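Students often ask what a 'structure token' actually looks like in practice. Rather than answer in the abstract, let us consider NADP-dependent 3-hydroxy acid dehydrogenase YdfG, a protein of 262 residues. Its sequence is given first.
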Amino acid sequence: MVAPPHRVPHPDRRPAVVTGASSGIGAATAVALAAAGFPVALGARRTDRCEEVVASIREAGGEAFAHRLDVADPLSVEEFAEATTSELGDIEVVVSNAAVLVPGRTDQVETETFQRELDVNLVGVHRLVRAFVPGMVERLRGDLVVVSSDVANRARPWMSAYTASKWGLEGMAHAMQMELEGTGVRVSIVRPGPTRSEMGSDWEGPAAETVITKWIEHGLARHPLLLRASAIADAITTVVTAPRGVHVNVVEVTPEAPLEGA
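Now compare that with the structural description of the same chain:
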């Protein structure tokens, strides 16, 4: 008889980190993970908003902690990692969600603005990887979830820096999936479609109108429905609660079209 493969026991306590947790997908994910029993550390630049989410989690009986985080600042990432580990213990789950998006035609966008998006959306994720993944590898368990975008499959005009960052992010994640095979650390991609969040809410009227018009022209806005942030949070929770021996590599979540005639 062949002996069953050895499995590293799944710990009962799995502290999780969520970046970009002050609103939208990040805040919804922190709430969903806490409801599923994960102690959660929320990171974002707007700590006051994170503290509001923390309060709601604690009122519901969950465990949560907030600390300022700017993924574009190496020192901020280092301090965040130290604070969250000190508060919650070894981090078992990292949900990398922080991102910025500035609309504009590629040849008209300032290079510094373009670079800033790449630094937050791609290089910032690598800073998190360096801060948390080595410990996961040492402990032979962990989950890294990168929140991508449907632009990684279908580029959208007037957001080329964001598109480039998400293409690069998925490339890095796929490489890590191969590199970390056999370490017990799972790297997963969650790819949201159009989602109702604060991203884009600060665009000026003409810019927003131009972007949406161009999306329609190129067949990238087939219907007006948007996902709720909680739908992405549910997908992320499903990914990280998969039992050992199961690796959910890529999940794409898109809004269902309205029923015909409704």
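One point worth highlighting: Confidence is low (pLDDT under 50) at residues 1-10. Ask yourself how you might have guessed this from the sequence alone, and why that guess would often be unreliable.
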